[in-house]
Amino acid sequence: MMDCIQIVAKSFWLGILIFGQVICYPYGAPDSTCSTMMPNHGISASNIPVPYTITTSKSTYMPNEEITVILQGKSEDYNIKGFLIQPRQKSSISQLNTVGTITGDSETWNLCTPPMAALTHRNSNNKTTVNMTWKAPAEAVETVVFVATIVQAELTYWVNVQSRELTPNSSVPGGGGVTTPSPAVGTTVPSGGQFFDPACGKSKGCFRDSTFLVTWADNGGSTINFEMKASIPVSDNYWMSLGFSSDTKMGDDSVADCSVQSGVVTSHSSYNPGKSNEPLADDTYGINRTDGKVENGVFTCSFSRAKTVAVSSGRHKKRAAVSDATFFDLNEDWYLMFAHGRGPATAKYPHVMNPKISNAKADLQSVIDLAADSKKVDLTKVHGSLMIVAWIFLASIGTVMARFYKPVWPDSRIFGEKVWFQIHRACMVLVLFLVSASFVIIFIESDGYSETALWTDFQKAHPVLGIIIMALTVINPVMALFRPHPDAPRRKIFNIAHFGVGTVAFILAIINIFIGVDLDMSKNVENVLWAYVGWFIFIVIVLEIHDLMKSRKGKNNENYELTNIAEKQPMRESSLNVHNWKPWILAVHVVIILGLTIAMLILGNLHDED
User: What is the tens place of the pLDDT at every residue in 333-349?
Assistant: First the structure.
């Protein structure tokens, strides 16, 4: 009985002691906690996961900029009875090196002796959220982390609760004041022309190069005013878009779109889940005050975009839901992406240029001037270029050699093999390598098999034909490895199969290049491609006529024999009494094909600047 009384008595006095210590500080933490951040509650901090978060309105800061800091529970069940928070240098977070100043509302007060910055509660009333304002120092040179002690109840508290990092804006040289940033390596901020605005870096934020201009101005409320301007090849049925991304790659991007149809300019909200674009379920969400025009080949569009999402709406078919996962918070800093192309904003055709990407994250509450990084490799262009070299240049030579040049140079050898065979084999092996590389590249760029619902049926055939062509390109050389001996009965079957597979692959490849050019909407490349088709048909007809003339002349020879017994090859043309023009025809063919190939490569890769 005596033991029970002693236990109760000890528990009573312990409770009185703890309660007394807690209620001694109902108006905030005492100065003594500035260095330790430990409340004198007579009990250790909780070791369960912290149910509170410290968030900042931005992830970067400028000199003297004010940033909103919010302390709140992860659910309504977690109230805040007391707290102490300090903005500390990340490099010395365990020391007493605070950064800037921090203030709150009437329910809070500043603690600790200046210049140390700290904020605590003014009373012990339960709070669900604490809003604070942190002001950056005059020189933004330190990465900042907010560190807090949070009290939920008299006996339950957490220490060393940290926010995410808040870093100096990297686009400001040396972390200094609001000035025009140094452009990234290989880029320049243009100082003149129709896409120059003297207000850039002064009263407006800008993102630009010599072909486009994006400006913005925070109106101090819940929206930001944007204006986009770019040269476009047509005056109607066209779109241009500004993307907000956490990195420099397409995918998981919030997008603001402008489009012109029948002379009417509209703006919309969309989202890039990957390499494609989807309108939001409410495609005008967060966008208003749209104005614009197309004049003298320049498309101009201005609009106001909400900083944050206020509601969430469900996903519609082929549309993304409206949420903070698809409509990004513009209080944060983002890389900017600019692109344009044909079609309305809600049904875009692929962009006609490699998207331009800012050389640093944009602080949309500032007036920095960002250059566009145009050095990103466009893998779609690489894919197309490799296909042009493979089929327009190499295959055009390889097929002509196999079809028309077997009897030429009968006494010459290259590494022990006939000239025609070595040239044919070298060309077609290179075709295999280039087509394979191009195939892998486009699958990487498109994240696998890809087609767009907005493509025409003709355009949708492009990936299907590509897979068929890739298969035929692999099958034909594999088939050649197992070709029968020239005297074998099955040699004719092999010849027919080898010729058939190669010819089908070649014809399908040219058709698919036409489709690819149509997707890229490069009329100049299409014109050159038609010139190539005309030339190739012409050269085949010329060589057929040449062989026909040879054949007729050969029949007049007294001892005519068209085939060589050993190899079943046509008789050497040098033995026929007809002047042999084939080497000259081949030389002209190679020069013409080379010129057309170079023209397509130049026009196709310069198309981004059209």
Answer: 899 999 888 877 666 76
